[in-house]
Amino acid sequence: MRYLVIPVFLLSVLLFFCVNISPEQLPYAGLVPMFIPVFLIINFILLILLIFAKKKILVLPLAAILIGWKFVGVTLQFNNDSSDEKGLSVLSYNAHMFNYEKYKANDPKVVPNIFNWIREQDVDIMGFQEFYQDYTTPARNAIKQISNEGKYNYSAQSVEEKSGKRFFGLAIFTKHPIINEGKIFDNRKTNGAMFIDITVNKDTIRVYNVHLESMSIPAEQLDNIDGIKENYRKTWRRLNRGMVNRAKQVNVLTEHIKNSPYPVILMGDFNDVPYSYTYFTVRSLLENTFETMGNGFGFTFNKVLFFLRIDNIFYSDQLNPIRFNTLREVDYSDHYPIEAVFQLSPMVKAVPESLDPAQ
Questions:
Q1: CB–CB of 109/314 below 8 Å?
Q2: What domains are there in the chain, each with its CATH number?
Q3: In the structure, what pLDDT confidence band is assigned to residue 130 with cuts at 50, 70 and 90?
Q4: How many CA atoms lie within 13 A of 81 on its CB side?
Q5: How does pLDDT run across 144-162, given as a tens digit for each residue?
Q6: What is the pTM (predicted TM-score) of this model?
Q7: pLDDT range class, residue 108, cuts 50, 70, 90
Q8: Which keywords describe this protein according to UniProt (predicted)?
Q9: pLDDT in tens, 163-194
């Protein structure tokens, strides 16, 4: 038995450590931690078997479980989110261009439906990834539709201009005054990161909206498992390339967050699972609302790989989350929206007389 237990223990510890290794430094290092859930399950099974067999070597799977317990917390949560207390509400949504492709395919009802749903949400802050703005068509003028006759202030970041009349990128809408805004990075294709500073009562909060490098797998391959199998070699290469790019992006992002003069809310599509360098690099600075207030597995991907949780809302420890939900009933996009509510209390520095927009 020990010839199985000892290798499993050593491999488990190696896997747990790999989330601290940047894919920039070691090729394919980012792919290895994907096996963490498998090895946690194996260690649980070994522990049970060894308990019944009364073998002293049970200390090894037990040690592996204790060392890797944080990965259980990022995977599955059972929190009490029954509070109906009002607070600062936040919604993050990869809107998949508001289903523009279906709109072009002569299904115009799709776009008004998603905008109708968004306008029904009485949320303080909304962050959109894959935001598509079309000034030429009133029904697809996302800024006008979502700002709802001035109900929301907004800031939008374009990562791809389309003839000056349309753009693709990121956007944040908020009921609160925006006193500062900026761009952190963009790759001039589909991804980027932005921030705004808002005043909430007498406090100031910095809100980030990010869309990190995608997994680089064509959409048609994600529609069925056969497509993934047939292209597995290309898929692995693309996954690794995406992880390397996300590692670069998250290093820039976390450096920016470290210099924030205010408490932070960070939302967006991270395109990476919780067992990743990306996730744990951010987690070293901020708390995650799913971990503190979530329930179940919190999967956010609306495709054949339904078991992925790649959308997140992180926050500074000065803030206090009281609710978190994944809105799986909302299926307009290939992602589900996520929402969190934070308790309002004095917490933040006063608004400075001047603020360097580059911070």
A1: no
A2: 2-75 (no CATH), 88-343 (3.60.10.10)
A3: very high
A4: 22
A5: 999 988 899 999 998 877 7
A6: 0.89
A7: low
A8: DNA damage, DNA repair, Endonuclease, Hydrolase, Magnesium, Membrane, Metal-binding, Nuclease, Transmembrane, Transmembrane helix
A9: 778 889 999 999 999 999 999 987 766 789 99
The single residue listed with the structure tokens 């744990």 is 280
